Amino acid sequence: MITVRQISNIRTRGAKPNAPQERARKVQDAVLELEKIGAAFSVADVAERAGISRATIYRNQKLRDLVGARGDGARAVDPDTHASVCAKHQSLKSKTRELRRRLAEVEKGWDEMRERAVSAEHRLRIAEQRVHSLNKRISSTTQAHSTVSLSHLATEIGTEGMRRARRKLAQVLHPDLFSQDAAVAAIAGELLRAVNEVVE
Length: 200
Description:
Blueprint: H1 4-10, H2 20-37, H3 43-50, H4 54-59, H5 61-67, H6 79-147, H7 150-173, H8 182-199
Helix pairs in contact: 2-3, 2-5, 7-8
């Protein structure tokens, strides 16, 4: 069976200032702060803001007088104060919506920038692979040309064979494929012209 003392120990109490003057000051400050808000408040609100228990206020006549009839009940709010609070509330809501909209736009912009960066890196890798492949082919073609002339190759494989080879080379060496690198485009063009002259 639970005794009265045990119930008293279970009950949560707020922190009590030692001096009565300090308690009164805390209650008065709490009431003033709550009045500035412009809404109804209770003794519990005052006690919570003052950091003391409700029982302390109820047991002390002076503290009850500080709260007065405003505690534990609604009170009239000044129309100008109410209008001012509502206007501030609407302004904050509008600013919040605008900030959310701008944040969404910034996030969308960052997503688009990341996608463009990934796409650019992919295209760069492909271009580097093409340049590397072209350099290898140019190197092998140059070495072959130093030992075997194109006219000699044309005689061996025939005109039709050279035309097929030209079409395949055009797919790889066409200068338009290397428009970003003038030097590579020039070399590719020279090679194609040399092949075209033999085929023609």
